[in-house]
UniProtKB/TrEMBL annotation, chain A:
EC nos: 2.3.2.23, 2.3.2.25
Name the record gives this protein: N-terminal E2 ubiquitin-conjugating enzyme
Catalytic activity: S-ubiquitinyl-[E1 ubiquitin-activating enzyme]-L-cysteine + [E2 ubiquitin-conjugating enzyme]-L-cysteine = [E1 ubiquitin-activating enzyme]-L-cysteine + S-ubiquitinyl-[E2 ubiquitin-conjugating enzyme]-L-cysteine; S-ubiquitinyl-[E1 ubiquitin-activating enzyme]-L-cysteine + [acceptor protein]-N-terminal-amino acid = [E1 ubiquitin-activating enzyme]-L-cysteine + N-terminal-ubiquitinyl-[acceptor protein]
Recorded GO MF terms: ubiquitin conjugating enzyme activity
UniProtKB/TrEMBL annotation, chain B:
A Pfam family annotated for this UniProt entry: U-box
Keyword Metal-binding: yes
Protein name (Swiss-Prot/TrEMBL): RING finger protein 37
GO biological process: protein polyubiquitination
Gene Ontology molecular function, alphabetical: ubiquitin protein ligase binding; ubiquitin-ubiquitin ligase activity; zinc ion binding
Residue ranges annotated for the RING-type domain, each copy included: 476-516
Organism annotation: Ladona fulva
Length: 154, 530
């Protein structure tokens, strides 16, 4: 496997460390990611003791050629998209570290951990207030959205 | 078959009234974990001898010999006394947990010692048939003759540390108490103990291969990615933590992390698109005058060494190597020219006789400098040759031993030769350039300096000076000579000879020939061509 894109080596390392010590309740679909490192599918279990206990979610990570300087494109996919004030019904996530607060020092593991904690700290299951409007009008790529991070508590 | 009773498998218990240091608990002495066993026992810092340690056996034991290691690191117990608690036969064998009080029990001293340079004590039965293996540097003693019967029926062993070397903390590295269940024990108890011991031993025997297999597995796991990527051989410290590539110019960040300069620049480019100032990617704290990234030259040299040694490997072919030669030469050049300029200033300020000497001096020093360069050049070349020949020799010697390895090595040597050749030529070129440039600047500098000298040097100075544009601007307006210039109030220049001519022709009203402005001889100033 020759590393052509500059991000390949980093992704390979991240995959290895992810497989070695995955965050609790999170597994990477290594069959799918093994073929193409630029798209990862991550399975996530709702943390026990939270509103999402027992639920299973799927996250899709898409890495651009500028990764790790540019943030990955992270969306929920599959049948079960968590009902959460920061997750739109099309799977887009309103999380600052996925766009402007991204740092190359972050990794897939830390992003997964952030999303797990975002879900875990939720107190009421509901969609974002502007969900229906956003889902109709938004770009396919959540990074193209100009997010307004109005809530720091969750 | 002898059993080591100082082992948790045979239900031995250990206790002491003394507090032990954290991590150096008494239980280490019984532990089966080699890591714990390695540490041994250390009393807490404030504990002074005597310290007693009691080893209670599950049944009565016929002790054959006792081994005590007394050094933990630099802590050493050097005065030991050993006692055995004994009881009459029938009491313990039947009911192991019912203590009979003082009735049938007695405490007997089985031995004592004062260690000097020895690292431990071995107490043994005088009549012990098979000679136990004595660890090196051990003091060997027999049990006290009076304790002969007591050691055959011991229910517990007490080790009393009554003195420590250099007033260190009471310490015991390890204890081994070898023996068999006493004859007074019931058959069941004896069988149980030997079963326990056998099982424990089989575990111990089984452990090494298990560990080896685990190691192998680990190694296999490690080697898998190596075969795919051939990347794991690179030490982690050489890799940029963000891009995971080998660093070309490692920079230490204020957070202490080291990343490549290119990564930092890229990161700061991205940060600037968000309107943020350059900062540490790990902390997000922006750089200031006192808080910024500095190059890690030590790491850089280690990376370079690694790359030179492993440069033949495929995966290192694309790795960028930055060599800062050009800048270095430039700085030397600047340094030298500034020196020349200083000399120039000095010359123009001083009187004529000293001028010649110091001019001569500058010339000399320049030639010395040149010599220095050529010398260093030649030495560096020699050095290169030496190292190359050394490598070749290495190759030859290896050749005799192992052909395969030699091939690899030779390849690496060839690579090294190639790279060093490249490096040599490049450095040679740069040196040559440098030399030429230096010569040019020196020539012009000396020329301009010499141009300030009086007429006896004029002929020699003029040709070189006439090339110099700067000095062309500062030339006499009448004869175009550049030596010994004077400036008129109108800031036009005249040389001394023309000025003298003028002053002899018209005493009072001298006029500048360019602007026809009249001037007095008192207004004329010496012009220094700096």
């Amino acid at each position: 496997m020759s590393s052509t894109a500059p991000s390949q080596r980093r992704l390979q390392k991240e995959l290895m460390s992810f497989l070695k010590e995955p965050p609790p309740g999170v597994t990477v679909d290594s069959d799918l990611t093994g073929q193409d490192l630029s798209v990862w599918i991550v399975h996530m279990d709702g943390a026990p003791g939270t509103l999402y206990e027992g639920e299973k979610f799927q996250l899709q990570f898409k890495f651009g050629s500028k990764y790790p300087f540019d943030s990955p494109e992270v969306t929920f996919i599959g049948g079960n998209i968590p009902v959460h004030p920061h997750v739109y019904s099309n799977g887009h996530i309103c999380l600052s570290i996925l766009t402007e607060d991204w740092s190359p020092a972050l990794s897939v593991q830390s992003v997964c951990l952030s999303i797990v904690s975002m879900l875990s700290s939720c107190k009421e299951k509901r969609r974002p207030p502007d969900n229906s409007f956003y889902v109709k009008t938004c770009n396919k790529n959540p990074k193209k959205t100009k997010w307004w991070y109005h809530d720091d508590s969750v | 078959m002898a059993i080591n009773f100082c082992c948790s498998h045979v239900k031995t218990k250990i206790h002491s009234p003394a507090v032990s240091c954290e991590g150096y608990d008494l239980s280490n002495l019984l532990s089966n974990d080699p890591l714990h066993r390695e540490k041994g026992f250390l009393a807490e810092g404030f504990i002074k001898p005597p310290v007693s340690i009691f080893v209670d056996f599950f049944c009565y034991v016929n002790i054959s010999h006792v081994l005590v290691w007394t050094e933990v690191g630099r802590q050493k117990s050097d005065g030991l006394e050993l006692y055995v608690k004994t009881g009459s036969a029938a009491e313990k064998g039947e009911s192991s947990h019912s203590s009979q009080g003082h009735g049938g029990e007695s405490i007997v001293r089985i031995g004592s010692c004062r260690l000097k340079n020895e690292s431990g004590l071995m107490l043994r039965k005088y009549t012990y048939r098979t000679e136990p293996i004595v660890p090196s540097n051990f003091l060997v003693k027999n049990f006290n003759s009076s304790s002969r019967f007591a050691v055959q029926n011991a229910s517990s062993l007490e080790i009393k540390i009554y003195s420590t070397a250099n007033s260190t903390v009471p310490a015991l590295k390890r204890i081994e108490i070898w023996g068999n269940p006493s004859h007074s024990c019931s058959k069941e108890v004896r069988k149980m103990i030997s079963d326990l011991w056998n099982r424990a031993n089989s575990i111990v025997d089984r452990q090494p291969p298990d560990i080896k297999q685990a190691d192998k597995k680990l190694k296999e796991e490690d080697s898998k990615p190596t075969s795919v990527e051939n990347e794991n051989s690179v030490p982690d410290e050489f890799l940029d933590p963000i891009t995971c590539e080998i660093m070309a110019i490692p920079m230490t960040l204020p957070s202490g992390k080291v990343i490549d300069l290119s990564t930092l620049e890229k990161f700061n480019d991205v940060e600037s698109t968000w309107g943020r100032a350059p900062c540490d990617p790990f902390t997000g704290i922006s750089f200031t005058k006192t808080r910024f990234a500095i190059p890690d030259s030590a790491l850089k040299s280690r990376i370079d060494q690694f790359l030179v040694e492993n440069g033949h490997l495929k995966q290192f072919k694309g790795v960028g190597r930055t060599v800062g030669h050009a800048n270095l030469n430039h700085s030397i050049l600047i340094g030298k020219t500034s020196e020349v300029e200083l000399a120039k200033k000095h010359l123009s300020d001083s009187s004529i006789p000293s001028l010649g000497i110091s001019a001569f001096k500058t010339h000399n020093s320049s030639s010395v400098f040149k010599d220095g360069i050529s010398h260093s050049q030649s030495t560096s070349r020699d050095h290169g040759k030496e190292s190359l020949s050394g490598k070749n020799e290495n190759c030859d010697s290896e050749n005799l031993n192992d052909q395969n390895r030699t091939n690899v090595k030779r390849k690496s040597c060839e690579q090294a030769v190639d790279t060093s050749k490249k490096m040599k030529t490049s450095s040679f070129l740069s040196l040559k350039d440098h030399e030429d440039m230096l010569e040019d600047t020196l020539d012009s500098a000396i020329g301009s300096v010499l141009s300030g000298l009086p007429s006896f040097l004029k002929s020699s100075a003029q040709p070189s000076v006439s090339k110099d544009r700067d000095s062309e601007r500062h030339a006499c307006k009448e004869c175009n000579s550049v030596s010994c210039l004077f400036s008129l109030p109108c800031e036009h220049l005249l040389c001394r000879s023309c000025l003298v001519k003028k002053s002899s022709e018209k005493n009072e009203h001298m006029k500048c020939i360019t602007c026809k402005l009249s001037f007095n001889s008192g207004d004329v100033k010496r012009f220094h061509n700096i």
